[in-house]
Amino acid sequence: MRRYFSMLVLALLAATAVAVPAQAHAELKSSSPASGAALDTPPQQIELTFSGVISLPDGDAVTITGPDGAKWPVTQAHAVDKTITATVDSAAAKAGAHTLAWRAQSDDGDVITGTFTFTMNVAAQTSSEAPTSSVTMSAPVSNAPPSTTSSESGGVPAWLWIVVVLIVLVGVILLVRRRKT
């Protein structure tokens, strides 16, 4: 009996060891503009692609800070499946390094964050007529569109199904062996 209990404990440990990677948060896989990119023209849109399904968190999902510390206006942020897209006012771009900070909500509800930089080789506006007051904080981002929120089922995690199957399998093995004796 002790041997069967040991097998059950080992099977459960193996199941949880396999299931741990499945619980990982989504990670940023690619972006446009890319991290470290040197751009000749300012981007009109930001696109962030993640390893898992994400949604927009409360507050700003994307902020871009220029070399002078001024933030670009970011509007129309949307999350669809694994991608966040946002429209930016590229008129605020200046030559130099820009920092893009992002926030996303993983499918499990946790908020993940990150930053990267890209460089503008040429400023977007070279005329001195551009009003400096046009640079404003990015607008608050609303929650994900209804099409993405309905995909969150809140179902049973995969690791739980693996544990249940292993327990049933060990139970069947124990019953078969017990009937043989």
TrEMBL record:
TM region positions: 158-176
Pfam family, any one: CopC
Signal peptide: 1-26
Localization terms from the record: Cell envelope
Magnesium is among the record's keywords: no
Entries under PANTHER family matching the protein: INNER MEMBRANE PROTEIN YEBZ
Protein name as catalogued: Copper resistance protein CopC
Annotated source species: Lentzea indica
